[in-house]
Amino acid sequence: MIKGLLIYNAHLVDESMDTAGAILIIDGKIRFVFQGYFTSGKTAEQMARIILKEDGFDENFPLELFNANNLIVTPAFIDMHVHLRYPGQTQKEDLESGLKAAAAGGYGTVVAMPNTNPVVSSVEMAMQIEREAAALGLTQLFQTVSLTKDFNGTDVSHLDFLDNKYIPVISEDGRDVASSSVMLQAMKKAADNNVIVSCHCEDAFLSVDAKGHRQIALDMMKKLELTSWGTSSKYDCDDNCPSEFDILNDELCKADFLLEKAEDLMTERNLELAKMADCKVHIAHVSSKGALEAIKKAKAEIKQFNEAHDLVSATTTYYDFLNDEKAESFEKYSRNYNVTCEVTPHHIGLAGDEAPFNRALVNPPLKDRNTRYELIKAVQDGIIDVISTDHAPHTLEDKKMGLRASLV
Ligand SMILES: [Zn+2]
Q1: Among 4, 137, 159, 384, which residue's CB has the most CB atoms within a 10 Å radius?
Q2: Burial label, 219 (beta-carbon count in 10 A; 0-12, 13-18, 19+)
Q3: Phi/psi at 286 (nearest 5 deg)?
Q4: CA–CA separation, 111 vs 120, rounded Å?
């Protein structure tokens, strides 16, 4: 039986509105959006009944009323970056708990990374996971496929038959593809199939050096009996701090610096390779000023290119295509290369140089307050396209074991 639902006394927010209002839903689909203050259910119902009458429903049509009490009603969010730990690490999370968390957070779609056990390295496996997720009837899941087979860093043969309807994004997240040549091959295949490459930009070699420093710091943190946040209940650092704190802070600084440079370098490389491959890239968890600058530059260049393309198309007629020179010029200005990027809530919400987060370890590391403001400004300016969570649960045991230097 067809039923109706009227959500009234709501605060409606989407890209086109930020206003008080009510929503009439018939048979699970939005039929009408009323703007204005509908604090009384009776008034809201009278408005809704006019629409229902137009649709041929009589006054007995079952209409449920829901008072939103001025809470915000928005379209569901999309998370471009989650780790659901399925398959293989379900002690951390499984599809059901991950998608329940997503639905509870207001997410209608999530994109899951492939660093599972085994690694998701085939279209068949990704589609099987998507089918299992769909059967749960919670949030929609898009499963990414790895850029290299089983993260082996060399083989991209599995990328020949991607279908962007089911696999719109591929990624090596958790690591980068160290070889530029292999990355270029993967991007070319992605471009051929019109699939977006989500890049975890991190120079693998600098990152090994950084993890060495982090390991020394972690050992020191254990010795000093610090919490998993790196805070201490035993020592008041304003006075009588043991000298180990200096060493600890110094090691963390060295690690952070190397990881920042690892991000800068590979963001620039991946953008350059994407341009060569004429591929669409999405830069994951942007956290450094250098990465942000590289993205700004790439986006400005793309904008300039698109404007030139529009000009050429506006002045090109069908007959011009018979003219080789004009056709060639149009061809020159047609390309697929595009750049989008994301920032995480923790990189815009927390600063690594402010207590109590000075020693909190995440990858990429938290940056200083100034960089944090730049990231927020980039969201405001539209340089950063989306906020993604990088939701990546671990068990408490893993964290207690001090494995954080290598956890992704
Ligand atoms: Zn990542």
Answers
A1: 159
A2: middle
A3: -65, 130
A4: 13
The DSSP result for 207-222, as a single string, is: HHHHHHHHHHHHHHHH
**Which residues of the chain are under the pLDDT cut of 50?**
405
Which phi and psi angles does 249 have, rounded to 5°?
A: -65, -35
Please choose, from the candidates 391, 393, 349, the residue with its C-alpha nearest in 3D space to the C-alpha of residue 107. Answer: 391
Torsions phi, psi of 30, nearest 5?
A: -65, 120
Q: Phi and psi of 78, rounded to 5°?
A: -120, 130
What is the model's pLDDT at position 316?
66
Are 75 and 14 contacting, i.e. CB atoms less than 8 angstroms apart?
Answer: yes
Question: In the 8-state DSSP scheme, what is residue 154?
Answer: S
Residue 120: partners with Cβ closer than 8 Å, 6 or more residues away: 114, 126, 129, 143, 144, 145, 146
145 Rama class: left (phi>0) / alpha (psi -120 to 50) / beta: beta
Centre of ligand 1 from the C-alpha of residue 198, in Å: 9
Q: How far apart are the CA of 128 and the centre of ligand 1, in A?
A: 23
CA of 157 to the centre of ligand 1 (A): 23
Burial of 393 (0-12, 13-18, 19+ CB in 10 A): middle
List CB-based neighbours of ion ligand 1 within 5 Å: 173, 200
The answer to whether 333 touches 350, Cβ cutoff 8 Å, is no
Calpha distance 20→72 (Å, rounded): 9
Query: Cβ distance 187 to 194 under 8 Å?
Result: no
How many angstroms separate the alpha carbon of residue 63 from the centre of ligand 1? 46
| Per-residue buried b or exposed e for 351-365, using 16+ beta carbons within 10 Å of the residue's own CB | bbeeeebbbbbbbbb
pLDDT at 224: 83
- Tokens 């207001």 sit at which residue? 106
C-alpha 24 to ligand 1 mean position (Å): 40
How far apart are the CA of 293 and the centre of ligand 1, in A? 19
In Å, how far are 122, 208, 233, 278, 296 from 336, measured between CA atoms?
A: 24, 34, 54, 5, 18
pTM: 0.88
Q: How far is the CA of 408 from the centre of ligand 1 (A)?
A: 7
